[in-house]
């Protein structure tokens, strides 16, 4: 019987989206399991791949089968459960399996970097083991890092031993990332016993003061200590310390250290709080499900400030006590120090944190902590859903309505759906938390009973929700106020300055371009490659396209009519900042937007400043709306509340309501009561009017009614297929064929295209029409939208048509992108 590995090669195309069989050579037997990354010969090249299956017989004759070339990691990075999840994802979102699998790996593991093997710090082997290893251990102990591939080649008969020791931790594997070993090592002093130290002091020459001090320090504090740290502690140089090692009085060894991005911060220990009755009632069914290990999904619908986080924390505690692991997803933007601190303070080093602001190396270290079982809780943004745990008991998704849980590039997965599937594979509990649940989740809870609905309708400690006033800016204009701030908002702001309280100002900028326009002829500067207005950047005085990166200098005269009256238009945060400085001299403003938060750590820096009350106003875009919990914020102002309502997206109302409710929720969360002022040109709009009474149910009822009539989610589902090409006629003809074939297939299956009859399965294809962004990077874009309802496998139909038309698409040089359950309609 010959062992065979089924491998998915890392070439993301439809033709290679299947497994290929390879022989497992003896040298590698015992190293290959499901999830192992391997190097394989493929079409004359060596490619990277992932083993997704093992078998004894092969689909092609053994004689024609090639052997695997190499194993790329000693510790298999993916489990068979994650591979299974990947298979599910590739079907769910119509993407090649390799793309789904690669999305689960930390970036540091993606290249074909060589792996090195080292003995672990303090590892010991018996004489018997040393003898058994036939020179292998001897080679390793010389201290030189040895390549894993080399070891496997030189010691083929000792592969089992190597693997066993890697698994029991006596050997470690490391990888070069960014030209350095991906594991950080620290030169560490190991003091000898007190006796030796005493003798050393006696032997030292009289003038060796510093060396004496070092020895005294170590005699006092016999714990291992970093050379650098020790040098600082006794204010000497590392070379002084090294000279002691040379004389054999102390030992200096390299010790691996995790790059813990939070290492220099002390987290005060936090104990579980006494729950309010509402929290206790919410926790009860969650704990029950954990206890019974039943695969439940809950929607925890708690208003802003109702204390959802404490419920998560105590559920996680329960989960950990039963020996299982927990994943907590929070939106990238909410991964503030404040949020991280809540978890670190409660669970300490058992928490791994994963987010994009960490360096590749830092992320890899956190990932290893999870993979090697040193962490029990992973807190992170979207991709943390793939945390390589093996016995998950609980998955929490905070702010479950957030759009950032949907990845916009392939694999276009939604972390919420992945969470539900992953929890099913583990028999785990899912908690979806939000003050403003997505309509999909809410409707499923109310109509279908899964998720189970849990409500926390009040804030903790009887704190009231803030009062909300809506200001009609048209009225302001009628009364002659042309300023950016209404009289009410200006007055409230002044009031806060007098009382030394703080204000959060949200500029809803989505759909509100900071563009340049000529006031004489109406010319607006647009990207020559995309159908998009260019955005003005004050710092560099240039105009930039946010889609393709095109940039040009700010025009002095209108390129169209040569008028000098061309100027920067629209309301950017910079403009608001200027207006604030003008209206309130001396006001201290922190501006948070894409321009001020690109630098690593800047986000945190601003929030810390604001928390320490070194500013009066926190002004920003969406990123100031979520997760913040500052006791002195008593006023929230919203400028241009309706800015995003006109976007060509059926979720525009829902998003506006969620954003306004979330930002309103930042006010009055502690002792001081809060107030919210929303400026708008459209005060009657249901998205704005409902915020006044914190009326989620009122909003949702109206909005669901509209969705039901139009057959939009949650009452129907969508698949967006976008085609792009330089030539419009080409696009139109392929697009038409596309739409037609799907319609034909549906008709052949007897699926109606009539959505008016409630409850009946239906499918229709809208388009092809020009996409809302009609041209990008010199390519025109057309869209077909498949809308369907009921028992229809539209993904399957779409993928069939894609396959059938694959050749035509390829020959014509078209690009096709498929988005199943799209969240962004642009
Ligand atoms: N049982 C409790 N007793 C006293 N204070 C509590 C309790 N639970 C939570 N709090 C406090 O109430 C405040 C709000 O809690 P938390 O931030 O968890 O709310 P939330 O529901 O997550 O709100 P949001 O959705 O707005 O983020 C916090 O300052 C928290 O420390
Ligand atoms: Zn002009
Ligand atoms: Zn462009």
UniProtKB/TrEMBL annotation:
<dbReference type="Pfam" id="PF18319">
    <property type="entry name" value="Zn_ribbon_PriA"/>
</dbReference>
<dbReference type="Pfam" id="PF00271">
    <property type="entry name" value="Helicase_C"/>
</dbReference>
<dbReference type="InterPro" id="IPR001650">
    <property type="entry name" value="Helicase_C-like"/>
</dbReference>
<comment type="similarity">
    <text>Belongs to the helicase family. PriA subfamily.</text>
</comment>
<comment type="subunit">
    <text>Component of the replication restart primosome.</text>
</comment>
<keyword id="KW-0639">Primosome</keyword>
<keyword id="KW-0067">ATP-binding</keyword>
<dbReference type="Pfam" id="PF17764">
    <property type="entry name" value="PriA_3primeBD"/>
</dbReference>
<feature type="binding site">
    <location>
        <position position="521"/>
    </location>
    <ligand>
        <name>Zn(2+) 1</name>
    </ligand>
</feature>
<dbReference type="InterPro" id="IPR011545">
    <property type="entry name" value="DEAD/DEAH_box_helicase_dom"/>
</dbReference>
<feature type="binding site">
    <location>
        <position position="558"/>
    </location>
    <ligand>
        <name>Zn(2+) 1</name>
    </ligand>
</feature>
<dbReference type="InterPro" id="IPR005259">
    <property type="entry name" value="PriA"/>
</dbReference>
<keyword id="KW-0235">DNA replication</keyword>
<feature type="domain" description="Helicase C-terminal">
    <location>
        <begin position="553"/>
        <end position="707"/>
    </location>
</feature>
<protein>
    <recommendedName>
        <fullName>Replication restart protein PriA</fullName>
        <ecNumber>5.6.2.4</ecNumber>
    </recommendedName>
</protein>
<dbReference type="InterPro" id="IPR042115">
    <property type="entry name" value="PriA_3primeBD_sf"/>
</dbReference>
<feature type="binding site">
    <location>
        <position position="530"/>
    </location>
    <ligand>
        <name>Zn(2+) 2</name>
    </ligand>
</feature>
<dbReference type="InterPro" id="IPR041222">
    <property type="entry name" value="PriA_3primeBD"/>
</dbReference>
<dbReference type="InterPro" id="IPR014001">
    <property type="entry name" value="Helicase_ATP-bd"/>
</dbReference>
<dbReference type="InterPro" id="IPR027417">
    <property type="entry name" value="P-loop_NTPase"/>
</dbReference>
<dbReference type="Pfam" id="PF00270">
    <property type="entry name" value="DEAD"/>
</dbReference>
<comment type="function">
    <text>Initiates the restart of stalled replication forks, which reloads the replicative helicase on sites other than the origin of replication. Recognizes and binds to abandoned replication forks and remodels them to uncover a helicase loading site. Promotes assembly of the primosome at these replication forks.</text>
</comment>
<keyword id="KW-0862">Zinc</keyword>
<keyword id="KW-0413">Isomerase</keyword>
<keyword id="KW-0547">Nucleotide-binding</keyword>
<keyword id="KW-0347">Helicase</keyword>
<feature type="binding site">
    <location>
        <position position="545"/>
    </location>
    <ligand>
        <name>Zn(2+) 2</name>
    </ligand>
</feature>
<keyword id="KW-0378">Hydrolase</keyword>
<dbReference type="InterPro" id="IPR040498">
    <property type="entry name" value="PriA_CRR"/>
</dbReference>
<keyword id="KW-0238">DNA-binding</keyword>
<feature type="binding site">
    <location>
        <position position="518"/>
    </location>
    <ligand>
        <name>Zn(2+) 1</name>
    </ligand>
</feature>
<feature type="domain" description="Helicase ATP-binding">
    <location>
        <begin position="289"/>
        <end position="455"/>
    </location>
</feature>
<dbReference type="InterPro" id="IPR041236">
    <property type="entry name" value="PriA_C"/>
</dbReference>
<dbReference type="Pfam" id="PF18074">
    <property type="entry name" value="PriA_C"/>
</dbReference>
<keyword id="KW-0479">Metal-binding</keyword>
<feature type="binding site">
    <location>
        <position position="561"/>
    </location>
    <ligand>
        <name>Zn(2+) 1</name>
    </ligand>
</feature>
<feature type="binding site">
    <location>
        <position position="527"/>
    </location>
    <ligand>
        <name>Zn(2+) 2</name>
    </ligand>
</feature>
<feature type="binding site">
    <location>
        <position position="548"/>
    </location>
    <ligand>
        <name>Zn(2+) 2</name>
    </ligand>
</feature>
């Amino acid at each position: 019987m010959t062992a065979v590995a089924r491998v998915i090669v890392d070439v993301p195309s439809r033709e290679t989206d299947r497994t290929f069989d390879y022989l497992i050579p003896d040298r590698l037997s015992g190293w290959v399991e499901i999830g192992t990354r391997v190097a394989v010969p493929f079409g004359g090249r060596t490619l990277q791949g992932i083993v997704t299956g093992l078998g004894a017989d092969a689909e092609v004759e053994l004689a024609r089968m090639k052997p695997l070339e190499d194993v790329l990691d000693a510790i298999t990075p993916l489990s068979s459960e994650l591979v299974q999840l990947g298979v599910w994802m590739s079907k769910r979102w119509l993407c090649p399996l390799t793309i789904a699998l690669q999305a689960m790996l930390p970036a540091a593991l993606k290249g074909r970097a060589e792996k090195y093997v080292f003995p672990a710090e303090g590892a010991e082997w018996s004489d018997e083991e040393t003898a058994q290893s036939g020179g292998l251990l001897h080679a390793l102990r010389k201290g030189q890092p040895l390549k894993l591939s080399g070891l496997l080649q030189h010691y083929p008969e000792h592969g089992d031993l190597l693997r066993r020791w890697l698994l029991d931790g006596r050997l470690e594997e490391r990888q070069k990332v960014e030209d350095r070993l991906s594991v950080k090592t620290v030169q560490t002093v190991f003091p000898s016993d007190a006796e030796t130290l005493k003798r050393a002091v006696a032997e030292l020459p009289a003038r060796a003061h510093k060396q004496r001090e070092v020895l005294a320090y170590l005699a006092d504090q016999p714990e291992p200590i970093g050379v650098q740290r020790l040098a600082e502690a006794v204010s000497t140089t590392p070379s002084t310390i090294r000279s002691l090692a040379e004389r054999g009085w102390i030992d200096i060894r390299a010790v691996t250290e995790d790059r813990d991005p939070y290492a220099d911060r002390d987290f005060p220990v936090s104990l579980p709080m006494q729950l309010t009755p509402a929290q206790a009632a919410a926790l009860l069914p969650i704990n029950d499900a954990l206890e019974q290990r039943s695969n439940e999904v809950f929607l925890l619908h708690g208003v802003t400030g109702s204390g959802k986080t404490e419920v998560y924390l105590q559920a996680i505690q329960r989960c950990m006590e039963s020996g299982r692991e927990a994943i907590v997803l929070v939106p990238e933007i909410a991964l503030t120090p404040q949020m991280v601190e809540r978890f670190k303070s409660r669970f300490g080093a058992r928490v791994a944190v994963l987010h994009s602001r960490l360096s590749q190396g830092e992320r890899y270290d956190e990932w290893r902590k999870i993979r090697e079982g040193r962490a029990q809780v992973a807190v992170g943004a979207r991709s943390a859903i793939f945390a390589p745990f093996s016995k998950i008991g609980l998955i929490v998704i905070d702010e479950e309505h957030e759009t950032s849980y949907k990845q916009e590039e392939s694999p276009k997965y939604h972390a919420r759906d992945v969470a539900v599937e992953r929890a099913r594979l583990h028999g785990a509990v899912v908690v979806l938390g939000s003050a403003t649940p997505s309509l999909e989740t809410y409707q499923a809870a109310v109509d279908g009973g899964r998720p189970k609905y849990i409500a926390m309708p009040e804030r903790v400690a009887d704190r009231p929700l803030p009062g909300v006033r809506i200001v009609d800016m048209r009225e302001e204009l009628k009364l002659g106020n042309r300023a950016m701030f209404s009289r009410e908002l200006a007055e409230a702001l002044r009031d806060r300055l007098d009382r030394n309280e703080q204000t959060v100002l949200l500029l809803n900028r989505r759909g509100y371009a900071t563009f340049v326009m000529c006031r004489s002829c109406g010319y607006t500067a647009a990207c020559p490659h995309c159908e998009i207005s260019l955005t003005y950047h004050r710092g560099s005085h240039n105009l930039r396209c946010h889609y393709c990166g095109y940039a040009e200098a700010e025009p002095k005269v209108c390129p169209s009519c040569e008028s000098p009256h061309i100027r920067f238009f629209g309301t950017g945060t910079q403009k608001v900042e200027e207006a604030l400085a003008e209206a309130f001299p001396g006001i201290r403003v922190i501006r948070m937007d894409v321009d001020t938060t690109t630098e690593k750590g800047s986000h945190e820096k601003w929030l810390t400043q604001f928390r320490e009350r070194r500013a009066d106003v926190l002004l920003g875009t969406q990123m100031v709306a979520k997760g913040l919990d500052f006791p002195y914020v008593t006023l929230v102002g919203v400028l241009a509340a309706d800015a995003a309502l006109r976007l060509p997206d059926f979720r525009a109302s829902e998003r506006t309501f969620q954003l306004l409710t979330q930002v309103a929720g930042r006010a009055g969360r502690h002792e001081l009561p809060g107030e919210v002022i929303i400026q708008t040109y459209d005060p009657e709009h249901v998205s704005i009017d409902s915020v006044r009474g914190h009326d989620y149910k009122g909003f949702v009822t109206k909005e669901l009614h509209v969705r039901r009539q139009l057959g939009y989610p949650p009452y129907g589902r969508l698949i967006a297929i976008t085609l792009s090409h330089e030539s419009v006629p080409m696009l139109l003809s392929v697009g038409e064929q596309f739409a037609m074939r799907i319609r034909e297939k549906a008709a052949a299956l007897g699926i109606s295209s009539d959505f008016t009859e409630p409850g009946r399965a239906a499918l229709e294809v809208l388009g092809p029409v020009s996409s809302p962004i009609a041209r990008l990077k010199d390519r025109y874009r057309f869209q077909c939208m498949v809308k369907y309802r009921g028992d229809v496998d539209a993904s399957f139909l779409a993928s069939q048509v894609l396959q059938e038309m694959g050749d035509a698409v390829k020959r014509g040089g078209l690009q096709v992108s498929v988005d199943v359950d799209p969240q962004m309609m642009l």
